[in-house]
Amino acid sequence: MADTEIQVLQGMNALMYIRLLKNADKEEGQLVPMQTSLTFDPQRKSDSTATKSGNVATTSSIETKLKAEFIDNISKVSDDLYESLIKNERVEVWKINRDRVNDKGQYFAWYMRGYVTEDSNDNDADDNATREVDFTVDGTPKRGWLTLPASAQEELDYVFRGIGQVKNDATGKGTAFANDTDRGTGSNKASTSVTSQVPGVGVGH
Q1: What per-residue confidence (pLDDT) applies to 19?
Q2: 95 CB contacts (<8 Å, ≥6 apart)?
């Protein structure tokens, strides 16, 4: 059997979408516009105790560092980020990778909930104003697959409403990540058998 080519993921195709959790029943998840950098860093701290039989390792629960940098702009998203920080509002965050698509035409994504804990704004005279936003993530991020609206491809270079809204009686059009079948799957090309896409959000429970 021929070797499967390992596909490289491009940083420019890793995108952050956010929404204030309180607005989940009336708003779509929204692309953070003009992103320049996105850092996703789940980690588990470890320690060891020396015994007469050798070191015994211990580990802590998962902690996730999440940071986004973008050119400052006038948009609902940029104001919602301030809202989360100033008013201690919980926020939903999706890290979506457009390079990884399953056979249903859904994109691989991480889903998180937490708070904005720092929002740094630089305003150099010879450059665009920029923002660097840090999040504190609750619990463990969830993996899954979600569907983007058909209009997303054309609008990714600009501010747009993005992912479909979630009603109180639904968690969105998404598919949880299955360890047995989803490991190592997905590509940068959607299956040709997919004829339509329904706006929705993957909340990978």
Answers
A1: 93
A2: 14, 15, 16, 38, 40, 66, 109, 110, 112
Backbone angles phi and psi of 188, in degrees to 5: -90, 15
Q: Taking Cα atoms as reference points, which of 193, 171, 187 lies closest to residue 8?
A: 187
The Cα 89–Cα 115 span in angstroms is 7
Which of 161, 24, 12, 174 is CA-nearest to residue 92? Answer: 24
pLDDT digits (tens, 9 = 90+) for 134-179: 999 998 899 899 887 655 655 554 433 445 555 544 445 677 777 6
Distance CA 163, CA 96 (A): 11
Q: Which two tokens stand for residue 124?
A: 């150099």
Count CA atoms within 13 Å of residue 125 on its CB side: 0
Q: Which of 139, 140, 122 is nearest to 131 (CA)?
A: 122
The answer on pLDDT for 3 being more than 70 is no
What is the Cβ-side half-sphere exposure of residue 28, based on CA atoms within 13 angstroms?
17
- The CB density around residue 182, as the number of other CB atoms within 10 Å, is 16
Angle at 199 between CA 196 and CA 200, to 5 degrees: 125
Q: Measured between alpha carbons, how far is 92 from 82 in angstroms, rounded to an integer?
A: 14
Indicate the burial class of 147 (C-beta count within 10 angstroms; 0-12, 13-18, 19 or more). buried
